[in-house]
Amino acid sequence: MTREAPTPRRRATLKDVAAALGVSPATISNAYNRPHHLSADLRERVFQMAQQLGYPGPHPTARSLRIQQAGALGVLYPERLFQAFSDPFSTEFLRGITAATEGAGLGLLLVPASSSSHPAVSTVQGANVDGLVLYSLADNDPRMQAALVRQVPMVLVDQPRLEGFPFVGIEDQHGAEMAARHLIDLGHHKVGIVSLKFSPESFDILITANHPPTCHYRVSSSRLEGYLEGLQLPAEHLPVFICEHNSLQNGALAATQLLDAHPDLTAILTMSDQLAFGVMEAARNRGLNIPEDLSVVGYDDGASALQAGLTTIHQPSETKGRLAGEALIQLLQGQVPAAEQILPTRLVVRGTTRNF
Amino acid sequence: MTREAPTPRRRATLKDVAAALGVSPATISNAYNRPHHLSADLRERVFQMAQQLGYPGPHPTARSLRIQQAGALGVLYPERLFQAFSDPFSTEFLRGITAATEGAGLGLLLVPASSSSHPAVSTVQGANVDGLVLYSLADNDPRMQAALVRQVPMVLVDQPRLEGFPFVGIEDQHGAEMAARHLIDLGHHKVGIVSLKFSPESFDILITANHPPTCHYRVSSSRLEGYLEGLQLPAEHLPVFICEHNSLQNGALAATQLLDAHPDLTAILTMSDQLAFGVMEAARNRGLNIPEDLSVVGYDDGASALQAGLTTIHQPSETKGRLAGEALIQLLQGQVPAAEQILPTRLVVRGTTRNF
DNA sequence: TTGTATGCGTTATCAA
DNA sequence: TTGATAACGCATACAA
After folding, report:
1. Which nucleotides of D are covered by protein (CB under 7 A)?
2. Residue A141 neighbours by CB under 8 Å, 6+ apart
3. Is the peptide bond preceding residue B291 cis, with omega within 30 degrees of 0?
4. A8 touches chain B (CB under 8 A)
5. Which terms are listed as keywords in the entry (chains A, B) (predicted)?
6. Kind of pairing between the strands at B154-157 and B167-170
7. Which of A1, A111, A321, B285 lies at a C-alpha separation of 20 to 30 Å from A339?
8. Are A301 and A277 within 8 A, CB to CB?
9. How many helices (H) and strands (E) does chain A have?
10. For residue range B81-133, what is the model confidence (pLDDT) as tens digits?
11. Cα A98 to Cα A186: distance, rounded to the nearest angstrom
């Protein structure tokens, strides 16, 4: 097993350096982690020998195992990670997390969603992290249970609560209600809704609000409730298009189908800015002017909403991320963070809504 | 905070389950990893006992150490992670990486930059990853050496090359040259340049192109060279403002100082879209119309450039990320990726440049 | 189908 | 200041 061959095909370890130097492994470890526990001279010789043998320094995983710290925080995202970087609004959330956690020297691990070969739960089970942020997961997402089982510190954001874990969210329903009331105040009676998805496997579908399918996403259900509350219109005459993705393209599709089925609509409420942009594009393509012929309201108020002059509901997504990150760090330090932090939403009236 | 579950003083381990069940540790391990190596009945009993004891399943770090796989890829970013989520253009790059790596079940670890308490090299030494993407690091960034020492698979993107590691980049200089020539073709003779940073510690400074300070960033130096090549103007009359940050605010500051010192400028070349937006804002604030009074060219062509009608240099940042991710995965699989992939840049003329 | 023994590469506790 | 040794928690040949 032991070979004195000068060509170690295998990565050199701390023991190899110790052996080559005729000292104990502890000394090598000390050279890296406790400089004052050994003479400067010996320490220098250790580093020289390490370089000579190609010893890359303490193995991170072995060290993590030993000191019981992974040095990273994980984020569970409802969709494929690809999506996390597609919406300017969700990158703001991630920015908030890093703003809070980077100073502590903690990395941010984006945990991959499921794929054919790698079920989602296995990736959350295998994530080398000291804590998790559960972001906007569906109430039937198996990863929630998998995360719970891991018994690591967790913070929940915009998703179903779990007893004993800090929650960070926004006044989702209230924001939607304000959006709806804004339209009512402007005199609109024929309003369509473009919704975010209802369940992980959902696909594009046009329904009416009186018979909604089961909704597994807290954000979607809260906002829909807010819309209904604010509109006070008969649900059976309220068309709702449920989108599979939160994308401009999907918003355009939604608008097309809504307007095809209900040409008399004078306004559309959307559950995200991205969807609103898509609606606007589709509306213009069929010759409708905004806001003259059609009023549109978004949700989120990401960076691009200002640029586009979109009337929308503002939510502090970066702050949301920061609070989540801070709560998680407090948990790691044995402190007790606020059990619940609900951030305010507010209506921002710009140029895409108008009197009817 | 307190949970009703039987709180074990210490996290239960595989051994505990084995002991409680009177079987060997290997059996527990098999129950989780090799279902077919034991009877369905015993497997079921294992899971039940695990639940009863609160055993969270195999410890990810211990497992990682044993199987020599971290299950994640790391990204080294030139600035604080906060910045990675601030520029729509760099999020496109990250999106490309995840698009390539998520399918393989690999997480993406964003390695934190330095802070007062945590030197940057320690975080790269301690990152639990199977490979690294070095993105746009300065040639004097100590993390490059730290990464090299680790002897893990690496891919270099938009930064100094290292012998033996795949490189992914763009035609940086060529793009800049086209931008400059575009202005010359339009008849401009008085041109200012807004540059990205030259060194990690750099601060805002106005210089002339004939005496540039040492540049540690490959992207900045390539683009500056391209500008000089394309402009063919005397360097001593070419003002360059070097920005500390790649932000709209910094672009506005740059424009203000450039135009204060050189009121006769008719055009400004910027090394990023973000900087261009800032220049445009500052120009408008001082009563200059774009492009009538001032032509502006960006770089990157991120999503917002189209919306703003910015003349800019397009680069395929998402593709860049995808290729980097794919190359890294090939490395992990023992395959040999292309040693070098240089993606094309192209001039996109929109509404912010005009004849002079 | 199940058990035994060993090693993955460290760090921590003690003793010298 | 340095050394011997036992964890850290698991997976895998190999034996039974």
Report:
1. 1-13
2. A78, A120, A200, A216
3. yes
4. no
5. DNA-binding, Transcription, Transcription regulation
6. parallel
7. A111
8. no
9. 14, 13
10. 999 998 888 999 999 999 999 999 999 999 999 888 888 899 999 999 999 99
11. 41
**Nearest-angstrom CA–CA distance, A60 and B41:** 38
CA of B65 to C1' of D9 (A): 9
pLDDT in tens, B27-45: 999 999 998 889 999 999 9
Is B10 within 8 Å of chain A by CB? no
CA dihedral B4, B10, B11, B15 (to 10 degrees): -120
Q: Are A102 and B80 in contact (CB under 8 A)?
A: yes
Element (H, E) at B343: strand B340-343
Residue A23 CA to D10 C1' — how many Å? Answer: 28
Question: pLDDT > 90: what percent of chain A?
Answer: 90
**B10: which chain A residues are within 8 Å (Cβ-Cβ)?**
none
Q: Is the peptide bond before A291 cis (omega within 30 degrees of 0)?
A: yes
Each residue of A205-232: b (16+ CB within 10 Å) or e? Answer: eebebeebeebbbbbbbbbbebbbebbe
Task: Decide which of B9 and A286 is more confident.
Answer: A286
In terms of Cα–Cα distance, which of B306, B307, B246 is closest to B279? B246
Q: At what angle do helices A14-21 and A25-33 cross, to 10 degrees?
A: 110
**Nearest-5° Cα angle at A13, A56 to B65:** 90
Q: Rounded to whole angstroms, what are the CA distances from A25 to A29, A33, A34, A58?
A: 6, 12, 13, 11
Q: Which of A71, A134, A87 is nearest to B94 (CA)?
A: A87
Query: Which runs of consecutive H residues, i.e. helices, occur in chain A?
Result: 14-21, 25-33, 40-53, 60-67, 81-84, 88-101, 120-125, 142-150, 172-185, 218-231, 248-261, 273-285, 303-308, 317-332
DSSP-assigned letters across all residues of B98-136 = HHHHGGGT-EEEE-----SSS-HHHHHHH---SEEEEES
- Please indicate whether, in this complex, the C-beta atoms of B108 and A164 are within 8 angstroms of each other: no
Give the CA-to-C1' distance from B23 to D15 in angstroms. 16
Interface with chain B: mutation pick from A59, A87, A98, A248, highest number of B CBs within 10 Å: A98
Q: Which chain C positions come under 7 Å from a protein C-beta?
A: 1-13
Exposed e or buried b per residue across A104-133, where buried means at least 16 C-beta atoms within 10 angstroms of its C-beta: bbbbbbbbbbbeeebbbbbbbbbbbbbbbb
B276 has a pLDDT exceeding 80: yes
Residue type, B166: P
Residue A292 — φ and ψ, nearest 5°?
-55, -50
pLDDT at A184: 98
Residue type at B190 in one-letter notation: K
Considering only CA atoms, which of B110, B116, B115 is closest in space to residue B85?
Answer: B110
Is the Cβ–Cβ distance between B179 and B231 less than 8 Å? Answer: no
Quick check: B33 contacting A, CB < 8 Å?
Answer: no
**How many Cα atoms are found within 13 Å in the side-chain-facing hemisphere of A162?**
24
Average pLDDT in the A145-164 region?
Answer: 97
What is the 8-class DSSP label of residue A35? G
Q: Which two tokens stand for residue A175?
A: 């924001």
Chain A CB contacts of B325 under 8 Å are none
Residue A99 structure tokens: 């703003």
